[in-house]
């Protein structure tokens, strides 16, 4: 019937779009992966804002300044992340803010 031909056309259209969608997904994955991390150094910081991270140690300095804590947090996820956050907040998790 008419619905069968509509579903068939829809399936054909989706099959045509699948390779394109896979290429787009691969590009998005690459941009969201650790491979893309060095790209942040290609952009200057915004000179119009005086934002700071509020952390005593930047992400770039952390592996060298506190290597054991950094390794522990990478190996023992998510328990390591909880420990690091709690340690950074002085044991007071009520101070924890996601944003």
Give short descriptive properties of this protein:
elongated; 4 helices; 99 residues; mainly alpha
Largest sheet descriptor: none
Distance from N terminus to C terminus (CA atoms, Å) equals: 53 Å
Structural class: mainly alpha
Low-confidence stretches: none
Judging from the principal axes of the Cα atoms, what is the shape?
Answer: elongated
Helix and strand topology:
Blueprint: H1 2-32, H2 62-65, H3 67-75, H4 79-88
Q: Would you write up a description of this structure?
A:
By secondary structure, the protein is mainly α. The chain is built from four helices and no strands. It has helices at residues 2-32, 62-65, 67-75, 79-88. Helix 3 (67-75) runs antiparallel to helix 4 (79-88). The longest helix has 31 residues, at 2-32. The model has no long low-confidence stretch (mean pLDDT 76).
Could you give a short description of this structure?
The chain is an all-alpha fold. It has helices spanning 2-32, 62-65, 67-75, 79-88.
């Amino acid at each position: 019937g008419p619905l069968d031909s509509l579903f068939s056309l829809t399936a054909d259209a989706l099959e045509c779009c699948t390779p394109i969608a896979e290429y787009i997904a691969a590009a998005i994955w690459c941009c969201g992966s650790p491979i893309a991390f060095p790209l942040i150094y290609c952009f200057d910081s915004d000179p119009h804002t005086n934002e700071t991270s509020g952390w005593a140690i930047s992400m770039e300095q952390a592996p060298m300044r506190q290597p054991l804590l950094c390794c522990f947090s990478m190996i023992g996820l998510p328990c390591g992340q909880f420990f690091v956050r709690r340690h950074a907040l002085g044991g007071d998790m009520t101070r924890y803010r996601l944003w």
